[in-house]
Design goal:
With 483 residues, the protein is mainly alpha-helical. The chain contains 19 helices and eleven strands. Strands 3-4-7 form a three-stranded antiparallel beta sheet. The protein is elongated and about 105 Å long. It starts with 8 loop residues before the first strand and ends with a helix. It binds one RNA strand of 78 nucleotides through helix 4, strand 6, helix 5, strand 11 and helix 10.
Length: 483
RNA sequence: GCCGCUAUCGUCUAGUCCGGUCUAGGACGCUGCCCUCUCACGGCAGAAACUCGGGUUCGAAUCCCGAUAGCGGUACCA
């Protein structure tokens, strides 16, 4: 059809009524990828017609999250564009005009039924096993009946089957007579979602509506509305839903899935984007680690899944690690530095920090892991004496090892692994590697699990290492005396 | 209830359109082994799935019918 020659213009249209969550982020991502691939335009539209639930702070959170993910928009709040304003609360006059047109063309009408009356009708229908729908009672009233007030504005739905082609789902059919005359506005100044979305999609010249599957039943209503208004129909693509562990729809009510939470936890935007893309979409080959550019090269709506997907944090963690591997130590350092400051940790030097990152990189999955792993580099470790002893080694053997290592450190010229290993060769052969290396590692790090003692030694330096070893010796010989 | 959508390892998925190459491939996680002072990294190996029932066919994960289950919608929310 003619639609195919339209310039590609897609929109991400969130409502600022809750925390920006991963489901929203994925809808934004798929729109963004689709736009960027087809040299199209990615538009951000804020759907804040619900005055009660919409909050500015949530809108701010949406913008901040999208920016953090690197999903920049070509038109929308803060960047402007030729089709603005992009906040629905600022477009009320536009909707009003279209509402008046519909009313004067008798395609919409005022409904005088009160909520109580409607509720009673609904119950009656449901109890008989029918789909609850409005009776059309006020359809033909030219003006308000005696003693009645205007309640809402309804759209005259035709009794018809609506069929549309969904890019991911194929042909979908709904029966309009089942939903009846829907409410499109509370009054001229207060239009509702299904109406505003249709008006904006037309006025903003949207070519493809890519959104979550929870909107699929709104689609026939919007198509009918578009027809009545003489608008062009966009193409639709309904994405499978993101699910909680119990397979229910992921909701913005749950703050745990809030996107910025993941930032706080030390996840990278690249990893999140990568993971989100893999939820409901799969590349041709077996490769799973993608950068945004890689995604851009591979992505296609035709390979989007139909079934919902559970958000699996283990895999996100793994992907985060994969992206960590892709990063330079310098890059990681720039992320860690402000966090160190926030925690009141001061570092000897930039080089010192860089070296720590270098050896801890393979042990981290998130940026936050760094702090649990590396605390001993910034302050003296605390540990129990027992930890110093390798297997069933006695105090004497442990002290001997610590002593030998201290002597070697004193004599060492540059503290590197090769040199240290050479000097400790004989004691390690005599007592066993573990009996020597384990106590040193514990003396230096205070941990059961840590990087290689030679690495710690080199980074900590002579003075600091000697101090820690002598502290360890005191600790263990103190214990000996007590016995 | 009604309407719609969906259905392959625990999870994300490949394969389904154009039946045989599928004793169903990959990834996360899990288990074991190797490397190793520890942890991690790395390497190797392994357990693990076509929702069920009918059909069509020489042959079905793939096509058809039915059942079941899950999810979404059913607002004067979006």
């Amino acid at each position: 059809m003619k639609e195919s020659i339209r310039p590609i213009r897609v929109r991400f249209a969130p409502s600022p009524t809750g925390h920006f969550h991963v489901g929203g982020a994925r809808a934004a991502l798929f729109n963004w990828l689709f736009a960027r691939q087809g040299r199209g335009t990615f538009i951000l539209r804020i759907e804040d017609t619900d005055e009660v639930r919409s909050k500015k702070e949530f809108e701010d959170e949406i913008l901040e999250s999208l920016r953090w993910l690197g999903l920049n928009w070509d038109e929308g709040p803060e960047v402007g564009g030729d089709y603005g304003p992009y906040r629905q609360s600022e477009r009320v006059h536009i909707y009003k005009q279209h509402l008046e047109n519909l009313l004067s063309e008798k395609k919409a009408y005022y409904c005088y039924c009160t909520p109580e009356e409607l509720e009673a009708q609904k119950e009656a229908m449901t109890s008989q096993g029918f789909a609850p729908k409005y009776s059309g009672h006020c359809r033909s009233f030219a003006e308000a009946p005696e003693g009645r007030e205007r309640q809402v504005i309804r759209f005259k739905s035709p009794e018809a089957k609506i069929t549309f082609k969904d890019i991911v789902r194929g042909t979908v059919t709904f029966d309009a007579s089942l939903f009846g005359d829907i409410v499109i506005a509370k009054d001229l100044e207060h239009p509702l979602y299904n109406f505003t979305a249709v008006v904006d999609d037309e006025l903003m010249n949207i070519s493809h509506v890519i959104r979550g599957e929870d909107h699929i039943s709104n689609t026939p209503k919007q198509i009918l509305l578009a027809k009545a208004l003489g608008f062009q129909e966009p193409e639709f693509a309904h994405l499978p839903l993101l699910l909680n562990h119990d397979r229910s729809k992921m909701s913005k009510r749950y703050a745990e899935t809030s996107l910025l939470k993941y930032r706080e936890q030390g996840f990278f935007p690249a990893a999140i984007v990568n993971f989100l893309a893999l939820l409901g979409w799969h590349p041709k080959g077996n490769e799973e680690v993608f950068t945004l550019d890689g995604l851009l090269a591979e992505f296609s709506l035709s390979r989007v899944q139909k079934a919902g997907a559970i958000f699996n944090e283990e895999k996100l963690l793994w992907l985060n690690k994969e992206h960590l591997k892709l990063m330079e130590a310098e890059e990681i350092k720039s992320m860690i530095t402000p966090l160190l400051k926030a925690r009141g940790i001061s570092v000897r030097s930039e080089e010192f920090l860089l070296e720590i990152i270098e050896i801890q990189k393979e042990r981290m999955r998130t940026i936050s892991d760094f702090f649990d792993l590396s605390d001993f580099f910034f302050s003296l470790p605390a540990y129990s004496v027992d930890l110093l002893r390798w297997n069933n080694d006695g105090e004497e053997k442990t002290i001997e090892a610590l002593h030998e290592v201290a002597e070697a450190i004193k004599k060492a010229e540059n503290l590197d692994r090769e040199e240290m290993e050479r000097m400790l060769d004989s004691i390690m052969k005599k007592n066993g590697k573990g009996s020597v290396l384990w106590p040193v590692r514990v003396a230096l790090s205070g941990k059961k699990a840590s990087p290689d003692p030679f690495d710690i030694l080199r980074i900590l330096g002579k003075e600091e290492s000697l101090e820690r070893i002598s502290l360890a010796k005191k600790k263990i010989s103190g214990e000996q005396r007590l016995l």
